[in-house]
Amino acid sequence: xxxxxxxxxxxxxxxxxxxxxxxxxxxxxxxxxxxxxxxxxxxxxxxxxxxxxxxxxxxxxxxxxxxxxxxxxxxxxxxxxxxxxxxxxxxxxxxxxxxxxxxxxxxxxxxxxxxxxxxxxxxxxxxxxxxxxxxxxxxxxxxxxxxxxxxxxxxxxxxxxxxxxxxxxxxxxxxxxxxxxxxxxxxxxxxxxxxxxxxxxxxxxxxxxxxxxxxxxxxxxxxxxxxxxxxxxxxxxxxxxxxxxxxxxxxxxxxxxxxxxxxxxxxxxxxx
Length: 272
Fold this sequence. Notes:
Blueprint: E1 4-6, H1 11-19, E2 24-26, E3 37-40, H2 49-52, H3 56-69, E4 78-84, H4 107-126, E5 129-135, E6 137-139, H5 152-161, E7 166-169, E8 175-176, E9 178-180, H6 181-194, E10 199-203, E11 209-210, H7 211-222, E12 228-231, H8 235-240, H9 250-254, H10 263-271
Helix pairs in contact: 1-6, 3-4, 5-7, 7-10
């Protein structure tokens, strides 16, 4: 199986092509797929774009997707769409499974869920098959775009290596779901090969990890003198996402997925 890959220059897309180089990279100025199996990574990455450009999430997550779908109006296409845990929104039902009702908050989260809904409607209209793949927090070397708003763990570890202070919300008593980018890529490839069509799949570890644990481990590995400041969540941050979040991963395990890189190995890699 060869995939036409959109978004191959981003953190996850570039790692996917590095691991599976026989797939086809589709450039942004050529929206026509070269194969009948499509893997679509293109996306904005956080809810804070609304402060800088209120239209960015709509243009990237919806308008560009529609332009690509224009070239897929045939029932022999299968469209594999990379989505995010953010679409689930605020929930107390943890771990979250794929059948749970979504309640997204924030422009990024809402446009990602809207993109899922548009894709499903398009596929039902034209007989196209789809898979929606919702990713957990993805870690690993090479995430050049890491910041306090996007992939904050990598950003904080970079600061720890430089002995710079960091801020943790809620005393670090915040839980998230993490996988190494290589495990994520393996899960995506497995879903594209073996996953049922017209299905949604969570890609996560299935386990909650406390943020404070990651930071303390990073300080220990690097012998860092970084000061940790414990602060309250900013009001906007609290509005658009859960304090704690992790996903059930039963469906990908049934396909044969197993996590191969431990959390401790991920932190060690990021601390190098």
